[in-house]
């Protein structure tokens, strides 16, 4: 009898040891790998935390593979998102509302820390927003850039009809034409705005001055369902990158970031990065004001409440 008891105990012990060997974390990795996610980035400071997370191995630490795709225009980014080539993107409230209004469901999952500035050419006698009346001002049509421009004009009781809007979707092209004296002014994201100012152009006003922040990160509805764990792991890595950026001198990483992002020459000397915030949901006002602008311009058929377009997937 004692012999049989000893045999049974041995079998049980082997089972326990086998179970421990297959437990998550036993080999430093989860037994089941997280699905890869593909993110679209723009040439702006909103995208830098993703580049840092990739470069510093934070995505790998969180067990998620993030495939980064870079775009030079919002139109190309949005086409890639709606064609299924992206799971998510650094984007803006307007793009999210356009997609939803068109029947393609996306969810805003966090805000970003981007800044958008209206900048006058260095050869122009423009000292204030009112001096832009009747001048050529470049924007990208029906985007965050045009929205910020209209908000800046509205502050001075002007409208988009008071300026001549020159539509240039590609951000680098818009910057080049401003620097070459072919435009009176242009609205640019960072770091392009700082580059323009560094080269002698003049800052007129920006989204920071107005206290608005329509920049967001979006994911397709399909990704929020099928890749929720991956998105949360991505955000944990994103937050690590924010900590790194806020506590590390720019000189230690900007050369590599410029190389990865394709920022123009001179970015390192011209750009002062913002104090990045960890991933958080956008303010109600930033969402509602963007939606109202689109409705007032007749650009979307339906108005959306905050809960219709924002989804909390943060870890």
Radius of gyration: 24 Å
Structural class: alpha/beta
Number of helices in the DSSP assignment? 15
Query: Count the strands?
Result: 10
Work out the strand percent.
15-25%
The string of secondary-structure elements, in order, is HEHHEHEHEEEHEHEHEHEHHHHHH
Low-confidence stretches: 1-31
Ends apart, CA distance between termini: 54 Å
Q: Which of globular, elongated, flat, extended, rod-shaped describes the shape?
A: globular
Largest sheet: 5 strands, mixed
Give the secondary structure arrangement, pairings included:
Blueprint (H helix, E strand, L loop, with lengths): L1 H20 L15 E5 L6 H8 L2 H4 L4 E5 L3 H9 L5 E5 H9 L4 E6 L4 E5 L15 E4 L4 H12 L8 E4 L3 H9 L5 E5 L2 H7 L3 E5 H4 L4 E6 H6 L1 H20 L6 H8 L5 H4 L13 H13 L9 H4 L6
Parallel strand pairs: 1-2, 1-3, 6-7, 6-8
Antiparallel strand pairs: 3-10, 4-10, 5-8, 5-9
Helix pairs in contact: 2-11, 2-12, 7-8
Structural notes for this entry:
This protein is an alpha/beta fold and 315 residues long. Helices cover 43% and strands 16% of the residues. It has 15 helices and ten strands. It has helices at residues 2-21, 48-55, 58-61, 74-82, 93-101, 144-155, 171-179, 192-198, 207-210, 221-226, 228-247, 254-261, 267-270, 284-296, 306-309, and strands at residues 37-41, 66-70, 88-92, 106-111, 116-120, 136-139, 164-167, 185-189, 202-206, 215-220. β6 (136-139), α6 (144-155) and β7 form a beta-alpha-beta unit. α2 crosses α11 (228-247), α2 (48-55) packs across α12 and α7 (171-179) runs parallel beside α8 (192-198). The protein is globular. 43% of the residues are buried. Residues 1-31 have low confidence and may be disordered.
